[in-house]
Amino acid sequence: MRVLVGVKRAVDYAVKVRVLPDKTGVDLANVKMSMNPFCEIAVEEAIRLKEKKVAKEVVAISIGPKACVETLRTALAMGADKGIHVTTDVRTDQGISPLAVSNIIAHFAKNEEADLVIVGKQAIDGDNAQTGPMVAGLLGWSQGTFACGMEVDGQKLILDRETDSGTEKLSLKLPSVVTADLRLNEPRYATLPNIMKAKKKPINTVDAASLGIDMELKNTVVSVEDPPVRKAGVIVESVDELVNKLKNEAGVI
Amino acid sequence: MLGISTARALRRGLSVSSRHASCLVVAEHDGASVSQGTLACITAATKIGGDVSVLVAGKNASAIAESAAKISGPKKILAVNVEGLQLSENMAKAVQSMASNYSHILTPSSNIGKNFMPRLGALLNASPLTDIQEVVDESTFKRPMYAGNAIATVKMADPVKLLLTRTTAFDKAAIEGGSATTEDVTLSEEDTNAGLSEFVSESVSQSERPDLTTANTVISGGRGMKNGENFQMLEKLADKLGGAVGASRAAVDAGYVPNELQIGQTGKVVAPSLYVAVGISGAIQHLSGMKDSKVIVAINKDKEAPIFQVADYGIVDDLFKVVPELTEKV
Questions:
Q1: Which residues from chain B sit within 8 angstroms of residue A144, using beta carbons?
Q2: Which residues of B touch A120 (CB under 8 A)?
Q3: pLDDT (tens digit, 0 to 9) for every residue of chain A, 253 residues total?
């Protein structure tokens, strides 16, 4: 089995983002960037499939500027075999649509003869949560979103997924697209020897414009603003005071 | 001789080929009635304007459609009496077969909606918008990015606009006063069975309490609760107030409570009238799941905890002392 894993370079989860004064977007200048946390989980699951000898090769793909090479090196250090860097200079949080991203990933899923595509359930910059099911739809493959457990069983993938009220178990025909949720696994830290080894693994660079995929945005961001600010609250000194305020001031009980 | 409405349109300088919006809401239901999230989605659809139709799919669809006809707003309820549309590959195909009749297709932004709607987008070559929280006009919507720390206004250009609606952002449509017609829709096997997946089993948490995402009161526990048994203390308070119990990611990760109680950027989004955060520090990712609550109370013995920055009322004290006292006095 060959696995293709999508990894996105996004704002680090601990960063407190600020909106630019001209409202064109979030200020990304000098902000710490990292592999999207759900992409880490996706890579980890692919590597575990390799360790279980279910997968033969794991290919990582990333779309974006030159710095995406670092993100790919992290995936390689975790155990991926090779990387594909699709270059583009647009802002990857809002300048490229999930549909274009999905078309690119689908293209390489076919090129690399993948049997399984794993991506994170969402990227924490755009919070769109679309790429996984879109890739599946474009390829006509089965899909398992919000995966919290998966097991390959011959030509089938037995997948546990998070639902709004608990979990459900599905049997998916391979090939398939899976999106990784928080509890699918706990990603490993790359060890120093593996980081050194990763420097020698191949990364192919492809210009997004050369793929013949429509990159035009159908959904354009007109403005990006700060969320409404909540009025400052008060510290109360006793439960009696709290109950009084909730009853008589806020009127919620 | 031109028809009357065409003549009027020409006089107003409108394009005679422009059509009114026509929305299809793909409903979620529990086998008996449509969900609260669906009622909020219907409100979003009525704000877009034009006729609103609601699609109910499943074993009991016709019966559910009968009760859905009383919802204020929709003109038509369509029932597809086919099992198996809870599988996203099948739902995407079914909606694709009906899509050309509508200018907008909406569904709640849940694990169900986020499962099939993007796949539908791929089939229609359309780009959905996830988590819309405001309708500006029939092509323009607002949605959160970066865990709600930035709000984007987005203009859509696709002829069919696919929308996932944030449940907490729209009032729920009234469940009476409506007079929609109901219609059974027959779809072919090809349009309802992709043959790619099978349902095996499910594990659903049963609760007498209201649904977390639509409860009026939520009592939520964090790492400060120290163990799962202590959550019983929160359950008592929730029951006294007729509310639901939620949790931070830390509490779920520590194994205190099951996953589906998690509130946050990658968990559930809630906006109750009253949100009580007990022993929760207030990480960015948690705030994004509850900061639209009407009134926020924080109980935490650490006065530096970030949760106090969003709380309307805060008590800096030991939760094991405060919560029982609060339960007694409310």
A1: 197
A2: none
A3: 999 999 999 999 999 999 999 999 999 999 999 999 999 999 999 999 999 999 999 999 999 999 999 999 999 999 999 999 999 999 999 999 999 999 999 999 999 999 999 999 999 999 999 999 999 999 999 999 999 999 999 999 999 999 998 999 999 999 999 999 999 999 999 999 999 999 999 999 999 999 999 999 999 999 999 998 888 899 999 999 999 999 999 999 8
Total length of chain B: 330
Residue with tokens 């755009």, as numbered in its chain: A126
- B118·A230 Cβ contact <8 A: no
Say if the Cβ atoms of B314 and A231 lie within 8 Å.
Answer: no
A interface test, pick of B163, B197, B204, B249 with most A CB neighbours within 10 Å: B197
Element spanning B326, H or E? helix B319-329
Non-local CB neighbours of B108 within 8 Å, separated by 6+ positions? B28, B35, B37, B38, B40, B41, B164, B165, B167
Full-model pTM:
0.93
Is-contact B95 B55, C-beta < 8 A? yes
Task: Kindly list the strands in the beta sheet with B181-184, ordered across the sheet, starting from the edge strand earlier in the chain.
Answer: B129-132, B161-165, B104-108, B22-26, B51-57, B76-80, B181-184
Q: Across the interface, do A143 and B121 touch by the CB < 8 Å criterion? A: no
Whether A168 sits inside 8 A of B217 (CB atoms) is no
Q: For A170, which of B194, B197, B294 is closest by C-beta distance?
A: B197
Closest CA of chain A from B209, distance in Å: 13
ipTM: 0.96
Rounded CA-CA distance B263/B286 in Å is 6
Taking alpha carbons only, the member of A55, A52, A37 closest to residue A185 is A37
Point out which residues pair with A162 in neighbouring strands: A167
